User: Which sequence fits this backbone?
């Protein structure tokens, strides 16, 4: 029992400085290079305000409604008081007219109040919508390596949890902040007119309040941020373990992932506990200060009344006003709290928005229009960050319509070469030219629009088979899609799916095999009808029967296009116009199949090596 | 909703303490007007400074008490709400981990994530708020009404008349709001879904230059979310103006009838004023109540979504008569007339498959795309349950083995490469938590990845996975193989796991695997791999077309011969 009661006091306070450095270490170092960004609340607040200020017209309408509804809310009690005085005590005539007036005032109060919130909802939700879309678009502009460093779920958390946080507070905060300020000004002026001395005394608590609030917000600001960060971390973990569910199950690791989930869950509990407890102090502090000022007013007022300086009535009015004066302050404090958690969310959103985008195409970058397809790799070198070089002065040319096979051991740099071609990365040294012009002189979009890819992992979207193929060319007709599917030999398996072309595909690709995925990816590339074609190990896991057909389709597709193929199938390589052998980041051999065989280098060993291990042993046994 | 309350049971004590503290605070606050009246009547009225000071002191004492109590209650309330959130998340995650794949199909991944984070947060905040103010508002309403009846029953009736109407109105808002907020959460799932797809398909979207298309899709989805949110909030924001309107009408009625009552039944002006005052107080309390209700309707929508997950029936469990002691020893695998279809689909993907694999054998599975190779493999660790037939491992039906026992001794390398955020060593250790450094290195060497690892910046301590360094497809593939090998499995399943490897690396890997002495199933398209297998299973459209050794199939199976020819040309066959 006693232990149970002690429970709330057994949370270990998270070490703030330590957490700050460990949690954001990666982020901090990542963003250090960027323009110096004052990570403080007021700046974030100003940016949020900028968003709202875009709706100047509607925002002023809201402000007008807030002013009116505040006025009506003060008018209501006043009219009620007047009614009592004039018609119940004095028994004046015209009671009905006065009641009608009151009814109108009350109705207008409700109306303005309704309008202010309805309009504000639209503004705030549109702001949130804009932020969300902006964040989304920014993600599409970030360089690919940015994603390699981050967990998907953590990024997801920014688009959902953090924005949600901003959303819920924008709604209420703006109106409440405004009406609180208005009420504050109203009551203070009335108080001053009644008794300047007592007003001054009431103000005694203001420094205390400011100091207290400062202390609390100081604590909670960091705690809220820690909480959002922990939530992001948890999100990342959930996302990863859910998409890796097949492995979790197959390795029966459920208990272990649950245990590490618990660890992260506990971190949220601890940071959440402190953030919530301390922010819970705010209304209590306000109340206490409120009571204190109440006591001061009552005490000093009583002494003044004893001396005959003021009347008892003034004390009563004042006591009431002192309460009225702190209530908006109380509201302000409460709103401040919501605002803090919104700021924490907004800051994490702005973090992403401030990341440097990939697509800062050079200022003089032009649109790449006509493409013949001559590609020139000129002394191209590349290294990831501070890592070892993955490409070393690679030079070769591909003429328009040529098929180039890239051959080499795993990790030799074949994929990197392709990624440089489509400018996921830019070469660290040398240049890649298309029809004689440096690719960096063109916008990435226009460059890529002339290429089609069949990537290592054929990614399919949630949606129908048809939509997935249509991704190659968005304005393709259904007939064109089916023709592309037939060319890719995907048509027959698609028609066997339940729903045919309208069969729904899941994000994880369940329900269709890896090979079928690749057929769809090929259909997609066929539909795109590009000048430059890139096949990245695409044919490796398609079964042989289908592959023969694929080979035909690809031959047809490659005709007239410059194609780069990373393949392990020797017959694909054999038919290439040019074979480029990469070893450890360097180009070691180049030429046609026959030329390379004569060289008796790596390629011929590779070629014969495979024959050794399969055909010959098969023949012997 | 009831399930949610049951989560609070555990914190009964802390909850009652929090509520008690809140009531204490409330009492102290209500006591204040009484003290003030004392100061005025006995102090100022009687010209007595000591009484003023005495009661002033009591007033300050009360404030201090309220403050301390309030602070303590803040701790209790957040302890309850945070622990509640922790427990709900924990139970949810545990439940999700016990899901079968059929269960998973019912909930999109993004929806599960939203439920685990967003929805639980919503609930947790409601609990916190509930403990702090939920009782307060209704108590104030009831208190005010009761007091009004004591003052003047007849006039109080006019005040009370509005309350049932508002009560009904609030219940209506609660119901409707719940529905609207549920659709908000649903649409939020939709937005998250698009987002997630975009994050995982980022490369593809880049190379196909489809950003505009995706942006349009996302903004459409977000727009729908915006509309739904606006609709839900508009509803909840009408509550306050309506409460005000009704209560103000009550005040007008009290004034109007009070006016007559003054003459008729001798109500005093003070009584009318008092009732007007109580009406105003009730209005204030009701406005808090409406805020609570808005929150509550949101929370109820979230509670339903959480409960939906918690109440899902798990359809793949240890059977009751499963033998807790049974272990895999040798690794004989037999399929007897196995038929299988994916849950909720019509056609069988496997039909009447029968074969036998002896311990230590290498079984190659071949077949066209979609012929059922992966499905067959997934049945061995019982990732799915079969429709007909039996799979026996060492003579025991695999449904009678405990899942942890069964899966614990199988090494599985799936087709799609999945690494977790963590170091290289962590990822390999996934296969066996207590693996020593030597075992990890040994597994890496077998998987032909050791040399590559040693070239990484921090070798085995290099971070890989979603947050980690770039590894090529082949490197990742070998890492997943090392993960399966480290547990020294009795049965090893390789689902086309060498597709991204070049011929040489693959050959070295297959030679290394021979040392493992485990029953190995491997899906492959390469004849070079099948030649050395003990048994080859040739699948076509869910049926076992042929089985046997390379030579047997070359003689007996047309399809196999055709595949062989396609890979090695006619001459290869003529050699044979």
Assistant:
């Amino acid at each position: 029992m006693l232990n149970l009661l002690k429970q709330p006091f057994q949370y270990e306070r998270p070490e703030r400085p330590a957490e700050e450095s460990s949690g954001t270490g990666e982020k901090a170092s990542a963003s250090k290079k960027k323009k110096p960004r004052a990570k403080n609340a007021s700046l974030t607040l100003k940016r949020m305000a900028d968003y709202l200020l875009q709706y100047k017209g509607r925002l002023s309408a809201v402000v007008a409604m807030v002013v009116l509804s505040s006025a009506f809310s003060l008018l209501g009690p006043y009219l009620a008081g007047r009614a009592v005085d004039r018609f119940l005590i004095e028994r004046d005539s015209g009671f009905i007219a006065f009641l009608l007036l009151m009814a109108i005032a009350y109705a207008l109060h409700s109306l303005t109040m309704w309008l202010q919130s309805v309009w504000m909802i639209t503004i705030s939700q549109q702001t949130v919508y804009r932020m969300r879309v902006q964040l989304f678009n920014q993600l599409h502009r970030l360089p690919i390596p940015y994603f390699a460093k981050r967990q998907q779920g953590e990024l997801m958390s920014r688009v959902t949890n953090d924005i949600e946080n901003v959303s819920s507070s924008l709604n209420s905060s703006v109106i409440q902040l405004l009406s609180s300020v208005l009420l504050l000004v109203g009551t203070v002026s009335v108080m001053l007119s009644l008794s300047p001395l007592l007003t001054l005394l009431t103000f005694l608590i203001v420094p205390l309040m400011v100091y207290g609030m400062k202390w609390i917000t100081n604590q909670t600001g960091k705690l809220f941020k820690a909480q959002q960060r922990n939530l992001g971390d948890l999100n990342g973990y959930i996302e990863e373990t859910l998409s890796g569910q097949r492995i979790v199950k197959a390795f029966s690791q459920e208990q272990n992932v649950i245990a590490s989930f618990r660890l992260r869950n506990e971190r949220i509990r601890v940071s959440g506990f402190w953030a919530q407890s301390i922010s819970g102090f705010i209304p209590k502090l306000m109340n206490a200060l409120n009571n204190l000022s109440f006591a001061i007013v009552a005490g000093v007022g009583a002494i003044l009344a004893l001396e005959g300086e003021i009347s008892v009535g003034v004390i009563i009015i004042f006591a009431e006003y002192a309460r009225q004066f702190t209530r908006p302050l109380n509201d302000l404090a409460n709103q401040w709290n919501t605002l803090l958690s919104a700021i924490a969310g907004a800051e994490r959103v702005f973090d992403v928005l401030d990341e440097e985008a990939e697509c800062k195409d050079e200022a003089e970058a032009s649109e790449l229009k006509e493409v013949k397809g001559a590609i020139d790799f000129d002394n191209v070198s590349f290294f990831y960050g501070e890592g070892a070089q993955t490409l070393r002065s690679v030079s070769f040319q591909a003429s328009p319509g040529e098929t180039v096979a890239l051959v080499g051991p795993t990790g030799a740099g074949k994929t990197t070469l392709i990624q440089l071609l489509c400018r996921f990365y830019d070469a660290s040294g040398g240049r890649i030219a298309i029809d004689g012009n440096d690719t960096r002189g063109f916008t990435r979009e226009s460059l890529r629009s002339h290429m089609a890819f069949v990537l290592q992992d054929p990614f399919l979207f949630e949606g129908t088979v048809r939509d997935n193929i249509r991704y190659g060319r968005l304005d393709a007709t259904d007939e064109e899609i089916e023709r592309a599917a037939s060319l890719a030999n995907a048509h027959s398996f698609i028609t066997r799916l339940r729903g045919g072309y309208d069969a729904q595909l899941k994000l994880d690709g369940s329900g269709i095999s890896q090979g079928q995925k690749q057929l769809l990816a090929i259909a997609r590339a066929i539909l795109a009808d590009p000048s430059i074609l890139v096949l990245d190990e695409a044919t490796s896991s398609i079964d042989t029967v289908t592959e023969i057909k694929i080979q035909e389709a690809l031959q047809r597709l490659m005709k007239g296009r410059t194609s780069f193929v990373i393949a392990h199938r020797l017959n694909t390589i054999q038919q290439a116009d040019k074979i480029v052998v990469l070893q450890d980041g360097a180009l070691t051999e180049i030429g046609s199949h026959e030329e390379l065989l004569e060289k008796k280098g790596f390629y011929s060993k590779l070629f014969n090596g495979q024959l050794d291990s399969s055909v010959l042993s098969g023949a012997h046994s | 909703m009831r399930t949610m309350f049951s989560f609070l049971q555990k914190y009964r004590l802390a909850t009652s303490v929090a509520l008690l503290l809140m009531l204490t605070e409330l009492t102290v606050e209500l006591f204040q007007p009484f003290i003030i009246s004392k100061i005025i009547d006995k102090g100022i009225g009687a010209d007595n400074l000591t009484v003023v000071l005495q009661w002033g002191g009591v007033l300050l004492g009360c404030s201090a008490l309220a403050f301390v109590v309030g602070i303590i209650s803040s701790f209790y309330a957040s302890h309850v709400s945070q622990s509640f959130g922790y427990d709900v998340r924990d139970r949810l995650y545990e439940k999700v981990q016990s899901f079968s794949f059929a269960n998973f199909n019912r909930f999109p991944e993004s929806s599960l994530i939203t439920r685990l984070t967003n929805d639980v947060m919503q609930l947790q905040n409601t609990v916190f708020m509930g403990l702090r103010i939920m009782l307060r508002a209704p108590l104030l309403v009831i208190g005010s009404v009761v007091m009004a009846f004591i003052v003047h029953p007849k006039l109080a009736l006019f005040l009370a008349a509005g309350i049932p109407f508002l009560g009904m109105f609030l219940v209506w808002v609660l119901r409707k709001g719940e529905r609207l907020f549920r659709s908000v959460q649903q649409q939020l799932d939709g937005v998250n879904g698009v987002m997630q797809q975009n994050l995982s398909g980022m490369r593809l979207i880049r190379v196909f230059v489809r950003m505009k298309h995706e942006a349009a899709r996302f903004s459409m989805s977000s727009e729908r979310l915006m509309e739904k949110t606006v609709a839900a909030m508009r509803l909840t924001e009408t509550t306050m103006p309506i409460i005000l309107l009704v209560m103000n009408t009550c005040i007008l009625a009290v004034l109007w009838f009070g006016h007559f009552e003054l003459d008729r039944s001798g109500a005093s002006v003070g009584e009318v004023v008092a009732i007007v005052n109580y009406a105003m107080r009730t209005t204030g309390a009701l406005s808090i109540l409406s805020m609570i209700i808005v929150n509550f309707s949101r929370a109820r929508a979230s509670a339903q979504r959480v409960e939906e997950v918690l109440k899902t029936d798990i359809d793949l469990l240890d059977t009751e008569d499963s033998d807790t002691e049974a272990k895999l020893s040798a690794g004989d695998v037999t399929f007897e007339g196995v038929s299988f279809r994916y849950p909720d689909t019509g056609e069988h993907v496997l039909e009447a498959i029968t074969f036998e694999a002896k311990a230590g054998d290498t079984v190659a599975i071949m077949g066209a795309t979609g012929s059922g190779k992966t499905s067959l493999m997934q049945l061995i660790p019982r990732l799915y349950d079969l429709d007909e037939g039996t799979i026996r491992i060492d003579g025991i039906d695999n449904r009678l083995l405990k899942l942890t026992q069964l899966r614990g001794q199988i090494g599985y390398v799936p087709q799609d490469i999945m690494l977790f955020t963590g170091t290289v060593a962590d990822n390999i250790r996934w296969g066996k938590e207590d693996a020593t450094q030597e075992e990890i290195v040994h597994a890496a060497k077998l998987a032909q990845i050791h040399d590559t690892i040693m070239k990484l910046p921090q070798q085995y301590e290099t971070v890989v996975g979603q947050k980690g360094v770039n590894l090529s497809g082949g490197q990742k593939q070998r890492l997943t193989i090392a993960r399966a090998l480290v547990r020294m499995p009795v049965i090893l399943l390789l689902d086309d796991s060498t597709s991204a490897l070049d011929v040489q690396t693959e050959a070295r890997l297959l030679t290394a695997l021979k040392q493992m002495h485990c029953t190995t199933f491997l899906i492959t398209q390469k004849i070079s791999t099948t030649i050395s297998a003990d048994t080859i299973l040739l699948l076509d459209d869910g049926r076992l077309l042929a089985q046997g050794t390379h030579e047997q199939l070359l003689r007996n199976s047309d399809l196999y011969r055709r595949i062989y020819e396609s890979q090695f040309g006619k001459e290869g066959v003529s050699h044979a």
Remarks:
- The CA atoms of residues 428 and 507 of chain B lie 22 Å apart.
